[in-house]
Design brief:
Helix content is about 40%, strand content about 20%. With about 450 residues, it is an alpha+beta fold.
């Protein structure tokens, strides 16, 4: 039997809908740090930071680390003295653990509010659609969500509730700002509550207001969310990027303009990218990395019962220090279209490795590579090719067997030789904690 807190009567099923409803944003507190603390209770009140790929920068910090002066996104080597001074626990990113715990949090929310009422916004955030309710009922239901999620998953969350997504994000910001006072829950249901709250929030802390627009607004004398909320729609359309700005102002006024998004079971593109553990300049290492990433992407492809017709690869030179994404930045890329769509790993590895030879430059060092699969087709209705013999089921049967074995062993114990064996190029994770929830050999032991 699961114990429910005293506020359980405020469960959604027991609240009568009275209007268009409310939006809640459930945001995990310092999510990566919370995951690390879950199996290390001795760190519950101690400062913790988590590093990015290759142990490069600080991407998550606990409240204690923030109070100690640790800044977000700074290189790890710059913070080492401060970390040593305050005895801060440091961990490499453990994406396997974080992904599993994120899934548990989201499943808990779906059980509480219904599958169709939950929109996963990121790995540590989700919007929840709620019926209309009073200020007191909303605050109590937020506490109910917070306590149940923490009780069932061990992950602490903050909850913001309001009539719109933008106001809910503002409420969540206030809930996190003073966790002891708010108990990690803030509800802004009434106009008076919204007025008080928005007056205390600067425009640079509003969801949807980037740095450039925040600077622009402040230079115009608009410093608070309340002041922005009172601007006309015509002004917002002209000064804040057209319909996006108009929608933002309307959301701040309590008019819901950003609907809950339907959950997509099938992705339109699948990508696998990684930083190298150290810069590489030999083509063999890059081919091994591309083959490995193609294998991982193929597994994702089969998981959603699709096949890909187009494969793209990219590599990133070391000398470039700018931000990298799929559309901008120092990416050297190429692509090819396959004769027929496939999800068989070796049929994807071969063209991917061949593409490396088109963009590799001898003597140049590279720091990152990736594989993207697009032109996805459902396995049940793959478009054939008149000039290519129909593929038999042997390849897919072999893939299913490999997937089953690798899933049961939790790793890539079976892999194609093109992926390499030593893999000296692999991403550094020197301070990674065990994958407690997904690896038998790393499972947490209770004495």
């Amino acid at each position: 039997m699961v114990f429910l807190p005293a506020i359980a009567p405020y469960c959604v099923e027991n609240v009568t809908a009275m209007g268009t409803g409310l939006k809640a944003i459930v945001d995990c507190n310092s999510f990566y740090c919370s995951c690390e603390r879950l199996f290390k209770p001795e760190l519950k009140t101690k400062p913790v930071v988590v590093l990015s790929n290759n142990d490069g920068c600080i991407v998550s910090r606990s409240d204690e680390a923030r109070r100690a002066g640790v800044e977000m996104a700074i290189p790890y080597f710059q913070a080492k003295d401060l970390i040593a001074k305050h005895d801060i626990a440091v961990f490499s990113s453990n994406y396997t653990l974080y992904g599993d715990l994120s899934w548990r949090v989201m499943e808990t929310l779906r059980m509480l509010a219904g599958k169709d009422n939950v929109e996963v916004y990121s790995v540590d955030e989700a919007f929840v659609d709620l019926p209309d309710m009073t200020q007191e009922a909303a605050a109590n239901y937020g506490l109910y969500i917070r306590e149940i999620v923490e009780q069932w998953t061990g992950i602490s969350v903050s909850v913001g509730i309001a009539p719109t997504k933008t106001l809910a994000k503002a409420a969540n910001y206030l809930a996190k700002k003073n966790k002891q006072l708010t108990r990690c829950v803030t509800a802004m249901v009434t106009p008076e509550e919204q007025r008080i709250a928005l007056r205390s929030i600067r425009v640079n802390n509003i969801w949807g207001v980037g740095r450039s627009y925040a600077d622009k607004l402040i230079n115009m004398g608009i410093t608070s969310a309340w002041e922005l909320r009172n601007m006309s729609e015509q002004w917002a359309n002209k000064q804040l990027g057209g319909v996006v700005g108009t929608r933002l102002v309307k959301e701040l006024r309590g008019e819901s303009c950003i609907d809950m998004q339907e959950q997509l079971d099938t992705k339109k593109m699948i990508a696998t990218t990684r930083m190298f553990g150290s810069p590489v300049n030999d083509i063999l290492s890059i081919k091994e990395a591309i083959a490995t990433y193609a294998s991982l992407a193929a597994q994702k492809l089969r998981r959603q019962r699709c096949s890909a017709r187009t494969i793209s690869i990219f590599i990133v030179p070391k000398e470039e220090d700018h931000a990298v994404d799929f559309h901008h930045g120092p990416i050297i890329s190429t692509r090819t279209t396959l004769p027929t769509a496939t999800s068989v790993t070796n049929e994807l590895i071969k063209p991917a490795v061949q593409l490396v030879e088109k963009i590799y430059e001898e003597g140049r060092f590279y720091k990152k590579a990736g594989v993207m699969l697009s032109g996805l087709e459902d396995d049940k209705c793959i478009q054939g090719n008149l000039f290519v013999p129909e593929s038999k089921n042997k390849g897919r049967f072999l893939m299913d067997m490999m997937d089953n074995i690798n899933f049961s062993m939790r790793g890539d114990i079976l892999k194609f030789a093109a992926s390499g064996t030593k893999r000296d190029w692999k991403m550094r994770q020197e301070l990674r904690s065990p994958r407690f929830t997904t690896r038998w050999e790393e499972m947490f032991e209770v004495r």
